[in-house]
Known about the structure:
CATH topology: Rossmann fold
Strand order of the largest sheet: 1-2
CATH class: Alpha Beta
Helix content: 40-55%
Number of helices: 3
CATH superfamily: Phosphotransferase system, mannose-type IIA component
Shape: flat
Number of domains: 1
Distance between the termini: 45 Å
Radius of gyration: 13 Å
Largest sheet: 2 strands, parallel
Number of strands: 2
Amino acid sequence: DLDQGDGVLVLTDMYGSTPSNIAHRLKEKNRVHVISGVNLPMVVRAMNYPQLNLADMTERVASGGREGIIEGDAV
Length: 75
């Protein structure tokens, strides 16, 4: 049964894509958070923090995406 817990975090490839549009429609009637423009650091964060509630998971995943983008010479 999927109707348990805080809700669902949906990760999509690009905002405006078909998966993103469908996820945003689900968001209107359900406990669904949507993050579009996903990169690998975001997926790793999502997998590493399964105990977080939906709001905290959404923020942790989004911050992982921002922090995971580094210009090659910036290191």
